[in-house]
Here is the input.
Amino acid sequence: MSTILIIDDEKAIRKTLSEILTFEGYTINEAADGEEGLKLFKEKTYDVVLCDIKMPKIDGLEFLLKATEHNADVPVIMISGHGNIETAVEAVKKGAYDFIQKPPDLNRLLITIRNAKDKNNLVSETKSLKRRVARVQEMIGDSPQLRKIKETIEKVAPTDARIMITGDNGVGKELVARWVHEKSNRSEGPLVEVNCAAIPSELIESELFGHEKGSFTSAIKQRIGKFEQAHGGTLFLDEIGDMSLSAQAKVLRALQEGKITRVGADKDINVDVRVIAATNKDLMQEVEQKKFRLDLYHRLSVILMHVPSLNERINDIPLLVDQFLKDICSDYGIPKKTISDQSIQQLQNYNWTGNIRELRNVVERLVILSGKSITKDDVASYVIPK
Ligand SMILES: Nc1ncnc2c1ncn2[C@@H]1O[C@H](COP(=O)(O)OP(=O)(O)OP(=O)(O)O)[C@@H](O)[C@H]1O
Ligand SMILES: [Mg+2]
Here is the structure.
């Protein structure tokens, strides 16, 4: 059932609207002026508000501004008399959903309300969908090493400091980057990821900075680069050690000046982007071999975060295995399998060169090949020691 708030100082209008809309199945609350309307508006979330323009105390326009400040998602439909259509138009420009004229035409009134309600539902649906999709996978583990990583995330996330995340394959560098964004003041903004190793070196500049139509042979359309896409949010430069030297020079300029230029363009564009980089290479060694610029290295590594490999934190294995069993069994639509303590101990004795990614694959293999309960024999036969 939808609830509508009617704000009008003319009792007759309130009464007519209220009767019609109650008949249509809406629940109605009434207010005789903007001040009372605002008070009711703040008490609960209405589906739609109908609001007169000329009223004592707080008028319609002022109500609209204060109401949208409080909750911009509730559609407000203005009711305008003959004399104030211009004000009604102005109200729409300032965020009112629409306006209807007095005396209200019944059909138009009902259609406008229905549309406003639908739009509102759509908006909140999209929002909760975004929230659900955006949820980042939990970081499982209770080892001192992992706890330290989590503490560092809490500390550095709300700052705008650049972060360099290092660590072996599959240790969770990308996950750390996502949590930093999620816990930062930019979490409502975009998180844009670029895998520098996956992009051919002749395309990386256009990928990062965009290009104008016709700037090179295959540039058929204008393209917005990742830096611009990340404006107001975070840019995650993954595998930064694989970036070409010429791209490094341009990234350096973007970081120094907060400006980028699209390939083939002559004007600069200001960008507000927090950069997080990650690599599994030893960048200092790359610097010595002249494959990575030292100045860029210093710009990027204001905060250094090293994610330890799984072999250094085998105490995390029991919790990780438990979580992966839960996730994988639920993906396969089967009841969660159990695993013996001995099997877990065996897993703790392996050499995890592929780290957490490898552990997850091993658990998946065990789920597929073992019975309801995973035994140490299963581990011995299906997990090949290295
Ligand atoms: N602490 C953790 N808890 C649960 N899952 C984790 C954890 N750390 C990593 N993972 C999972 O392990 C996999 C590998 O992690 P991720 O991709 O972040 O690693 P990476 O360090 O970026 O690897 P690469 O160097 O290969 O790019 C992902 O599926 C990730 O969700
Ligand atoms: Mg990665």
In short: Residues 173-174, 238 surround magnesium ion (ligand 2) (CB under 6 Å). The first strand starts at residue 3 and ends at 7. The mean pLDDT is 90. The first helix runs from residue 11 to 23.
